Amino acid sequence: MSDTKTRLLDAAEALFADHGIAATSLRDITTQAEANLAAVNYHFGGKDGLLTAVFGRRLRPVNQERLELLDAFESAAGVSPVPLDQILYANLAPPFRMLDASGESGQRFMRIVARINADPASSIHQAFLRHFDEIRVRFLEALAKALPELDADEVERRFHYSLAAMFHTFCWGPQIACLCAQPHDHRERVFTSLIEYGVAGLRAPSDGVDLDELRGLERAIKGVPA
Amino acid sequence: MSDTKTRLLDAAEALFADHGIAATSLRDITTQAEANLAAVNYHFGGKDGLLTAVFGRRLRPVNQERLELLDAFESAAGVSPVPLDQILYANLAPPFRMLDASGESGQRFMRIVARINADPASSIHQAFLRHFDEIRVRFLEALAKALPELDADEVERRFHYSLAAMFHTFCWGPQIACLCAQPHDHRERVFTSLIEYGVAGLRAPSDGVDLDELRGLERAIKGVPA
DNA sequence: GTATGATTCATACGAACGTTTGAATCAAGA
DNA sequence: TCTTGATTCAAACGTTCGTATGAATCATAC
Lengths: 226, 226
Description:
- The structure is a homodimer.
- By secondary structure, the first copy, chain A, is mainly alpha-helical.
- The first copy, chain A, has a domain at 58-204: Tetracycline Repressor, domain 2 (Orthogonal Bundle), CATH 1.10.357.
- In chain A, 74% of the residues lie in helices and 0% in strands.
- The first copy, chain A, is built from 10 helices and no strands.
- Chain A has helices spanning 4-19, 26-32, 38-44, 47-77, 84-117, 125-130, 133-146, 152-172, 184-202, 211-223.
- The radius of gyration of chain A is 21 Å and the shape is globular.
- The interface between A and B is large, with 72 and 72 residues.
- The structure holds a DNA duplex.
């Protein structure tokens, strides 16, 4: 049997992912971990401390690997910009690798991350965001260099879109067949799909859509109903 | 002063959006609405009923408008597929129009939707999803017709990616400058950006990325560190 | 063996929650 | 004016929550 601390982290990870954070009580966690109720306060100082530890445990190595990958691609590219598919790969490969390594628990973890990401009012949201400070800066720099024709705001928007697709996939994957990361070859398909979609979206022509034209079309169609 | 029922809906909408659903108590809501605590149970049967009413009130007209727009574009296109930008426009214009019409409260509402969407364990998640049953089917059909070279799974994946970008934008918009829907001309930019990114992503070549090549590159770089 | 610091335990506390109740109040038709 | 049904109200209920406490237990070094 493993450490009490580890058992608590594992139980919390599973329950937070399956039932949500607010809906999971310390009693649920300690029961599943076969630990005493007070153990959470003893080891982590409280529920927030436990949650912080839950995502810190996995997020730290994943994000470090992201930065190392980006470093490697950048030094390989020299003065030229890193290709978009490599940038996205550096962002996506580490979490996917964690899915391979950690099995179901890794999958659960990604659902927690997606959950916290979508809930900016959560008490530990600030601590969560701090894990991504360096990531955001570094990846935005790389993207801006690879997409010199876009202004900074548009780069950031499109970066957020690609993050959104990733979070959405990890959050919904277990419930939506086409996004599911099981079995393994299907996971490869999803991984590839995310990069393909992201690369194409990132380098979309920035004058490709005329909103007024679409609105005019809408008015024309609706004005003359069949 | 408006109806008690309406005041409760407005207060709940604001508080759910700002502080999260689980973190908002009925006492918070009834205090802000200047109503009695028991009024929630009297009018809505409970907290879940109130939440259901909150998103039903706005989601119904928005989703109906989506379907009407798609209907219009489809009958205008005749037998040919509806262009991708029109499909995305039909999906995005109604919520953006609601932002224009309802001001800040509309913005808040979209944050609730994004919140519920990211929390599949929520008690009212089933009722929430039912609002999108018809939407999902109809838009998937239209997309599959416009993207005949893609298999059904890939179409659905990419549809989800475009939804993810939308939800992410509505959820984070108020906090991230580049995604913010204020002021109005900036909102137009975000709207356009979502369509541009989505169109490009949807029609990405499905063999544009070679995962093994990227992995090989990673190994090569890492194997020979500078 | 015993002293010591770390950990686990049963138990309790106070607060906040959603819900319920039954009386009070209001609005409107007979 | 009286009646009736809808609505509002203050108050309370039982539950569950996160946290705190102090004794019991364990591991380990002397």
